[in-house]
Amino acid sequence: MTDEVRVYVEEAPSQRREVVAPTDMALSLMEVLKASGYDIQATCGGMALCGTCHVEVLAGPALDEPSDDELAMLESLPVMTQGSRLSCQIRITNRLDGLVVRLMPQGT
Ligand code: FES
């Protein structure tokens, strides 16, 4: 068992950047994306309250269903797609390996 996973961020159509994330630090995807230089405000600090960490899951392993709090926040955003998730609510675990996400414009 490896202690890191690879997540891919689609920065433009057919342009994906690999992000390596440790699985043993209880990090959220939002924290990993911020640490990788992505401009995510995360003004609520990961409490599912600000929506600025909105991502769209494009491919990869199935994730746990969003909590009621996450769903309520997502539904309040101007744009919500089938793959919409709050990256602060996604824990980095081995199961995430191969996940592909796209950052949604902040405020949407
Ligand atoms: S950081 Fe605020 S909702 Fe995720």
UniProtKB/TrEMBL annotation:
Organism: Hymenobacter cellulosivorans
SUPFAM superfamilies: 2Fe-2S ferredoxin-like (SSF54292)
Domain 2Fe-2S ferredoxin-type: from-to ranges: 3-107
Protein name: 2Fe-2S iron-sulfur cluster-binding protein
Pfam families: Fer2 (PF00111)
Cofactor: [2Fe-2S] cluster
Keywords: 2Fe-2S, Iron, Iron-sulfur, Metal-binding
Family recorded in the similarity comment: Belongs to the adrenodoxin/putidaredoxin family.
Coiled coil: none
